[in-house]
Amino acid sequence: xxxxRPLLNDTGPLADATxxxxxxxxxxxxxxxxxxxENTLAAFRxxxxxxxxxxxxxxxxxxxGVPYLLxxxxxxxxxxxxxxxxxxxxxxxxxxxxxxxxSRRHAGEPPPSLDAIAVFCLRNGLVLNLELKPVPGDEERTxxxxxxxxxxxxxxxxxxxxxxxPLLSSFEPRxxxxxxxAVPELPLALLLDTLAPDCFDIAERLDCVAVVLDESLLxxxxxxxxxxxxxxxxxxxxxxxxxxxxxxxxxxxxxxxDAVDMFIPSA
Length: 267
What we know:
Oligomer: single chain
CATH topology: TIM Barrel
Radius of gyration: 17 Å
């Protein structure tokens, strides 16, 4: 891999990997996804109230192509509906209860569109790690549509120097490839829960600026190697303070956590 993999702005290469990383180190998982219903505006508000500035969330497409936030391939776990998350049009999804499963006080909280999350983040100076989470069979369309939506919603703020592109991440190389083809200037990250022999070659072919690894995979040698190859390294999901300290000592570029009330997001 090249040791000078670029970061990107709206017009192309911004700088090599020695340039300061534009994303906060501490990233709240699925909003503040244990303190409020995950992947909802309520979760973002809860995290922001605790001082968090960077958030991870999951985005997929409705049947009619509207990007919205949801983690699972099906609706059962976090809404009052059932079936495939990609089977309903946005008008039907927007009427679901995505909060009642979490607690009575969040009953009636709807699934948010990516547009709604963009407005909240841009108005409040918040930064996103946007995981592209396509339902099976919708990999390329998800990457293409979400990338165009991100350019439309964040482009003006990035051009004016008052916003930062979301970092688009995914376990699906086909989704990242579609996003890269649609909007080449967006920064991409490959998500990994195992270390296949060719996984970092895939990240190189996708022109990723970062990899986001299951925290159990990380070693000092691996972090050094990835940094040498020009890749930023983030870890998920780190909820133990002692483990966080060990990973910080490895020189990581970001930690994703559910424990938004335990860690202090100072940077």
